[in-house]
């Protein structure tokens, strides 16, 4: 199964999606979250979120992308401004405690299993400094969301299970907020 079908690729690489990410999605997902001097974005894909974070993050920005082709394109675009690393969020090639903030946006449902999602959560905690924040957003399961993902990797995260799963990964209490067709979350490494 492909990570993203052609329709989904077209949408996520469009200018319309990029504008929505900048004007609505990231402001909502990061409302109240202070990006630290070291920020890691997991799963930037085409880079619409990275484009916003590169302007917003006050310090060093790293991105971790599992798709080699996407990682190469991001390296070409952000050479010298953003550290782009090809790798898997469930097995991050970063040292313990290296980031103030770890973020991911609309990508958790592309992680192929709940077990790998849980490994990603544990890895996010591992690479955060004590007091660091893990934050982001994803879509809620629905018929329309499923139809968009026909032929894709599609493993939606039930938002009501996320606080328990983040606690199991070693985070302190997690906050999950529902929005229209999506949810945002944040958890602190204690």
Describe, in plain words, how this protein is organized in 3D.
By secondary structure, the chain is an alpha/beta fold. Helix content is 36%, strand content 27%. The chain has 7 helices and 7 strands. The protein has helices spanning 6-12, 15-29, 48-56, 68-78, 114-127, 143-148, 162-168; strands spanning 38-42, 60-65, 83-86, 99-105, 128-139, 171-179, 182-189. Helix 2 (15-29) crosses helix 3.
Brief digest:
This protein is α/β, with parallel strands linked by helices. It is built from seven helices and seven strands. It has a seven-stranded mixed β-sheet with strand order 3-2-1-4-5-7-6, sandwiched between helices.
List the keywords.
single chain; 190 residues; alpha/beta; seven-stranded mixed beta sheet; 7 helices; 7 strands; 36% helix; 27% strand; globular
């Amino acid at each position: 199964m492909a990570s993203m079908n052609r329709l989904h690729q077209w949408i996520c690489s469009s200018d319309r999606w990029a504008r929505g990410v900048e004007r609505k999605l990231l402001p909502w997902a990061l409302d109240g979250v202070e990006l630290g001097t070291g920020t890691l974005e997991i799963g930037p894909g085409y880079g619409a979120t990275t484009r916003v974070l590169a302007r917003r993050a006050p310090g060093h920005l790293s991105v971790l992308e599992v798709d080699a082709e996407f990682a190469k394109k991001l390296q070409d675009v952000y050479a010298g401004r953003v550290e782009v690393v090809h790798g898997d969020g469930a097995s991050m090639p970063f040292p313990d405690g290296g980031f103030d903030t770890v973020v991911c946006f609309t990508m958790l449902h592309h992680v192929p299993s709940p077990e790998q999602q849980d490994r990603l959560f544990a890895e996010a905690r591992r690479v955060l400094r004590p007091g660091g924040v893990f934050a982001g957003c994803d879509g809620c399961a629905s018929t329309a969301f499923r139809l968009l993902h026909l032929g894709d990797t599609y493993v939606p995260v039930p938002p009501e299970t996320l606080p328990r799963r983040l606690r199991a990964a070693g985070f302190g209490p997690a906050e999950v907020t529902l929005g229209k067709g999506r949810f945002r979350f944040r958890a602190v490494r204690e």
